[in-house]
Q: What sequence folds into this?
């Protein structure tokens, strides 16, 4: 007797989806349980706040009473975490079922409300895993976007209240490529960097940001009998344009910028459809000279960008120093404009 073969795959899909939904539901209930525990502990602390060290005593007492019956989830450290969870998210209706308890634990390490709101919005929108959220927090994604955008725009784009209209709203400088496994001290060529990116394409797309999809590597183009190869081609569905990436493991020169400009011009005139926006070019380089970029390109151009890549994640202090430098530079330019 013949049976439609698709019935098996359909039933398997239903089973897997139902299991996933059940796991999410259980995890969300666990998250709510920890929130309510944290709320009850805080309320009890408020009752005994006139007694010195009552909070510490209470946490220790609760752990001694609960851990033997309910296990390591009720150590003093974990109970303190539940209390912190409630204090950080005091409105239970703001908790998202899409976020797991492990993700909320990561968010507790984020030190400002705006930053947390950004990472929550991006996690929900992009369905980030725990590992992906952890990587974005530790690579200081929020601070890096602030280097070229104002806080309101960054949050509005994360919450889908605004769509990016300018490439600088999504292109990061620097880009952190620690996932490639390349050593900073070792010598390697552009091809090595390209191969490593293709091997870790999913991680690279995460670092690039929202809306990027891979199109081609070493894309061959013909111009009047001459043959050229574009390192990497992507498409961004939000900006609705091609994004060309050229890599330089040596010092950036004006010739590199000129070559990328030629590729961008080619895509604009040959590949781009009438409804699409102008092509964007990114020079991903080991050493960037802002002055060379500035004087090679026309003023107010919005298609060519140079972004320095780093093979190691920065410390928080390093990033704060970079942010401070950028703000000083911005204020300097602003003051010059006011004086003129």
A:
């Amino acid at each position: 007797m013949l049976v439609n073969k698709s019935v098996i795959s359909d039933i398997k899909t239903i089973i897997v989806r139902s299991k996933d939904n059940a796991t999410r539901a259980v995890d969300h209930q666990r998250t709510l349980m920890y929130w309510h525990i944290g709320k009850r502990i805080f309320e009890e602390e408020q009752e005994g706040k006139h007694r010195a060290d009552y909070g510490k005593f209470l946490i220790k007492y609760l752990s001694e009473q609960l851990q033997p019956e309910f296990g390591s989830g009720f150590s003093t450290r974990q109970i303190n975490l539940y209390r912190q969870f409630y204090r950080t998210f005091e409105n239970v209706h703001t908790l998202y079922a899409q976020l797991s308890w492990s993700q909320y634990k990561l968010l507790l390490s984020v030190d400002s409300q705006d930053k947390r709101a950004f990472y929550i919005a991006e996690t929900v929108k992009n369905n980030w895993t725990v590992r992906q959220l952890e990587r974005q927090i530790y690579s200081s994604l929020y601070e890096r976007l602030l280097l070229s955008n104002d806080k309101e725009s960054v949050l509005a784009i994360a919450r889908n209240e605004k769509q990016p209209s300018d490439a600088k709203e999504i292109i990061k400088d620097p880009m952190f490529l620690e996932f490639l496994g390349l050593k900073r001290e070792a010598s390697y060529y552009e091809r090595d960097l390209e191969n490593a990116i293709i091997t870790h394409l999913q991680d690279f797309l995460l670092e690039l940001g929202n809306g990027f999809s891979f199109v081609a590597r070493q894309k061959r183009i013909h111009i009047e009998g001459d043959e050229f190869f574009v390192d990497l081609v992507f498409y961004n569905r939000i900006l609705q344009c091609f994004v060309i990436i050229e890599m330089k493991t040596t010092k950036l020169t004006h010739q590199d910028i000129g070559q990328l400009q030629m590729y961008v011009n080619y895509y604009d005139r040959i590949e781009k459809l009438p409804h699409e926006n102008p092509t964007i070019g990114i020079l991903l380089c080991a050493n960037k000279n802002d002055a060379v970029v500035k004087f090679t390109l026309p003023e107010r151009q919005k298609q060519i960008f140079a972004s320095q890549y780093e093979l190691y994640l920065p410390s928080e202090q390093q990033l704060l120093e970079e942010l401070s430098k950028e703000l000083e530079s911005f204020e300097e330019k602003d003051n010059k404009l006011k004086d003129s």
